[in-house]
Automatic annotation (TrEMBL):
Superkingdom of this protein's organism: Eukaryota
InterPro entries membership: Timeless, Timeless_N
Localization in the cell: Nucleus
Region (Disordered): 232-268
Main subcellular location: nucleus
Protein name: Timeless N-terminal domain-containing protein
Timeless N-terminal domain segment(s): 20-279
Keyword Cell cycle: yes
Species name: Ilyodon furcidens (goldbreast splitfin)
Residue stretches of biased makeup (Basic and acidic residues): 236-261
Keywords assigned: Cell cycle, Nucleus
A Pfam family matched in the record: TIMELESS
Length: 357
């Protein structure tokens, strides 16, 4: 670790049991770390070294929990954590193709996953919720510029934490088991932060936070499917269980039949000349039928687009893709998300989407 960074981290203070003892120049040290991050190189060396030292888990989170009355220190710690927790794609601009930069990208992502696990705490989200609630109580003429900045940073911090992807190697969770993302969602619910999100989505005076609120809500439902949320809380009947078992048996029989047909179609002697076939009823470019030059086993996958170059879509015109991996969260999380979804659709959706559009 860089000597200057090590000295700055040591000047923050130290954690002893559950209590944190800050040094006299703790605030100046936090500001120095913000300054170091501003001048890091393309490999994000400062960010990686701070992640290796576990500064968020051992210093910044205990500071905001224990010294939340120190407004200047609290604001500086939130500002530093927003910078440290920003997505790796934003740090590097894209997922790097170069192996060296890809390694640095993976290192930053692993540090973010460790931060997310530390943030899955009701105490931390309780502090953030209470601070945000007190700021939202101020009228617009009483609210200072630094108050608006703190509101935005708290929303960005929560957005960054929800954005962190799961680690498939470490998090081998089955359905109905609480993942780290589920624990973060449960901490959001128990601290009352979800009620503040709904208030921000529906209040006319808080429409400037609409995009941040939409991002947070979208990431909250990232691993969910509508069918799973709708069925949450409803006991499965004997008929549904029997229907599921019949569907599974039908799929097993179908897979067995396909495997058997593939075995029968496979010839014992390999032929380098598969032959040419005329496909009747399927027109080529002219008036004649299509001539197929490959093995007949693969004909069911035939399209006229085979062999054509894929048209490249500009980045700004590409549609957002949902994550393919879907898993069923713990029951209490699904019930909370279901109630949140009902309240949001009834009271907030129309207004929020109108503002965002």
């Amino acid at each position: 670790m860089n000597c200057e960074l090590l000295a700055t981290c040591s000047a923050l203070g130290y954690l002893e049991g559950d209590s944190y003892h800050k040094e006299t120049d703790c605030l100046e040290s936090v500001k120095d770390l913000i300054r170091y991050l501003r001048h890091e190189d393309d490999t994000r060396d400062v960010r990686q070294q701070l992640g290796d030292s576990q500064i968020v888990q051992n210093d910044l989170l205990p500071i905001i929990v224990q010294y939340r009355q120190d407004k200047a220190l609290f604001d500086a710690c939130i500002r530093l954590m927003v910078n440290l927790t920003q997505p790796a794609v934003l740090c590097f601009g894209k997922i790097p193709d170069d192996p060296v930069f890809r390694h640095h990208f993976m290192q930053v992502t692993s540090h973010l996953q460790a931060y997310k696990e530390a943030f899955a705490s009701e105490k931390v989200f309780g502090i953030l919720s209470e601070t945000l609630y007190n700021l939202l109580q101020l009228d617009w003429e009483q609210r200072q510029e630094e108050d608006n900045l703190l509101i935005e940073r708290i929303l960005l911090l929560v957005r960054n934490m929800l954005h962190v992807p799961a680690n498939p190697c470490e998090e081998k969770k089955v359905d109905d088991d609480a993942s780290i993302h589920d624990r973060v969602l449960w901490a959001i619910h128990m601290s009352g932060f979800d009620d503040l999100v709904k208030f921000l989505a529906s209040a006319q005076s808080e429409q400037q936070w609409s995009m941040h609120v939409l991002e947070i809500i979208s990431l909250m439902f990232r691993d969910q499917t509508p069918e799973v949320l709708v069925s949450a809380g409803h006991a499965r009947s004997a008929e549904e269980k029997q229907r599921d078992s019949q569907e599974l048996e039908a799929l097993r029989q179908k897979e067995h039949a396909e495997k058997r047909s593939r075995t029968l179609q496979r010839g014992t002697r390999h032929s380098h000349f598969g032959g040419s076939f005329v496909v009747q009823g399927l027109r080529a470019i002219g008036e004649k039928d299509v001539i197929y030059h490959r093995n007949l086993n693969n004909f069911k996958n035939y399209t006229h687009d085979q062999g054509k170059a894929v048209r490249r879509v500009p980045k700004r015109n590409r549609q957002a893709h949902d994550l393919k991996e879907k898993r069923r969260s713990a029951l209490n999380v699904r019930l909370f998300l279901r109630e949140f979804c009902i309240d949001f659709l009834e009271n907030c959706y129309n207004r929020l989407m109108y503002l965002v559009k």
